[in-house]
Specification:
The protein is α/β, with parallel strands linked by helices. It contains ten helices and 13 strands. It starts with a helix and ends with a helix.
Length: 321
């Protein structure tokens, strides 16, 4: 019996030591070699948010280094308005954040050059639900003549009904008696473990990537997406604030039924008189996609320049400076 206990204890200690060494080696690799340092912290409203006061370099999908610096609010760029200019608020995910490019290469610099005061709340991995929750304090500060740009990647709609994403809890909506009902993220010890262990984070991400979105879920998500956009656009319009809905990434939805559903939802949403729409994909040269994208599908410097030019053109046409 004593020998069995001793062997079991030795085995447990050996496994723990192995895991500790593996975690240490993984962290060295991630930080020093792969340049993929930690960016996020749990957030009781949005599920996660970008850490404040970050100064780091990461390696993008093409192997090039890009810099990330955040202010005390966790934003790249300004987190305050210039009171002497028209305001533009940008909502989105990793494309809005500018994953893979330096801040001065991001699309919204083109908008700033036109004389607007831009505040960008984009965060990697956010669905449309999280984007509006993150931007809420700033949406409430917009005044007549200001504008908001909602940058929708097709998988943002997929994410709306998810309760977890990449190993993290997230908020989610359902529809109750014709109204949207918000469920806050269920932040547990798992989120803290994910932020302190790359091994756990990797396992969590791999497991959640296997989850398929059902036909019923994509219909539900599409309905919620449309309700979110239309509700927000109506409330903004009542204050004289304009909304631009810019969407892209149709090709990433391989399920043709889901792609059709999302396209129908976007078309129906764009019929709303309070929403100005821009289909970014239609303006990119599909025969030369490599000119606009990094290896992982995010915009490269030229992609951001092209998208910024398109958005600046739409904005200039509807918002007097």
């Amino acid at each position: 019996m004593k020998n069995t206990i001793a062997k079991t204890s030795l085995l447990i200690v050996s496994v723990l030591v192995f895991l500790a060494l593996l975690e240490g080696a993984t962290q060295v690799y991630v930080y020093r070699i792969a340049k993929r340092g930690k960016l996020f912290a749990p957030d009781t409203v949005t599920g996660w948010s970008v850490k404040p006061l970050i100064q780091m370099q990461r390696q993008n999908a093409d192997g090039d280094l890009w810099s990330i610096e955040t202010d005390s609010s966790g934003f790249r760029g300004d987190s305050y308005w210039d009171s002497n200019k028209k305001r533009v608020l940008i909502l989105g995910d990793s494309f809005a954040f500018g994953e893979g490019v330096d801040l001065e290469e991001r699309f919204d610099t083109t908008i700033e050059e036109l004389g607007y005061s831009v505040l960008n709340t984009g965060v990697m991995g956010y669905g449309t639900d999280q984007q509006f929750l993150k931007a809420r304090p700033y949406l409430d500060q917009l005044n007549r003549g200001d504008a908001t740009i909602v940058l929708t990647y097709y998988n943002d709609i997929h994410d709306i009904t998810r309760k977890r994403q990449s190993g993290r809890a997230k908020p989610w909506y359902d529809i109750d008696d014709g109204r949207l009902r918000l469920h806050r993220p269920e932040i547990t010890a798992r989120e803290k473990l994910r932020d302190n262990s790359y091994i756990y984070a990797l396992l969590g991400s791999l497991l959640e990537r296997r989850q398929e979105v059902s036909d019923a879920a994509i219909i539900q998500a599409s309905n919620i997406y449309r309700m979110i956009i239309e509700n927000e656009a109506r409330e903004l319009a009542e204050r004289g604030v304009l909304m631009i809905l810019a969407y892209h990434g149709e090709a990433i939805v391989e399920n043709l039924t889901h792609r059709k559903q999302i396209n129908e939802t976007l078309s129906a949403t764009c019929e709303n008189t309070h929403v100005h729409c821009l289909d970014i994909d239609q303006h990119f040269d599909v025969d030369n996609n490599d000119d606009y994208f990094l290896a992982d599908g995010h915009w490269n410097e030229r992609g951001h320049e092209a998208a910024g030019g398109l958005l600046a053109e739409v904005l200039s046409g509807i918002v007097p400076r």
